[in-house]
Amino acid sequence: AGMKFFLQYVGCIFAFFSAGFLIISTWTDCWMVNADDSLEVSIKCRGLWWECVTNVFDGIQTCDEYDSIYAEHSVKLVLTRAMMITADILSGFGFLFLVLGLDCVKFLPDEPHIKLRICLASGVMLLLAGLPGITGSVWYAVDVYVERSSLLFHNVFLGIQYKFGWSCWLGMAGSFGCFLSGSLLTCCMYLFRESSSGRLHSAYPLRKGYSSATTVVTNAHFPSSQTATSKMYAVDTRV
Known about the structure:
It is found in: Cell junction, Tight junction; Cell membrane. This protein has 239 residues and is an alpha+beta fold. 69% of the residues lie in helices and 9% in strands.
């Protein structure tokens, strides 16, 4: 039981931080950052929803939102948005399900098997959340790196070059955390489920044997003559 509680709490901590990292990375503005920090007097960051410029000397930040979601955007931007939002929803629901499945939470206290299934369901949700999260963040980072490398290879300078920023790294960390917590919950909680069901099945023959033994002992209290007499009395009553 102590090991079960420990695994639940560890999975809950990883799920909390992973969901938080995914949500923060989705709604922050530093998926791409200018690579020439030594030559610039401002830091330029691009996110999935807006672009911000921060002055190095006074720290003043100005942001410009992108056009409407119905406007024409690059495939990289649209798909990354969709995958990160999906990861946010799945990881958020996975964490909430896990909280309900914790043994310390007074939700269905008399149904330990149902709470165990809730933990398994939350583990599956977290695993599913990690898939679009890692796909979107890694694909975005690789696309930025390939674009920058191709410009350097062809000696093309457009005034500013980008590299992937801390928001992208945060998305990768949140996705790996979802994989870790989901694997911990699904694998380890499944082992606890098998052991608890095995104890349940082993207890059933004991109860059955105990009930049959009780029947034998109960019948042993009545002699054969009394049993025959009661049978005759029953026949006379029906006649």
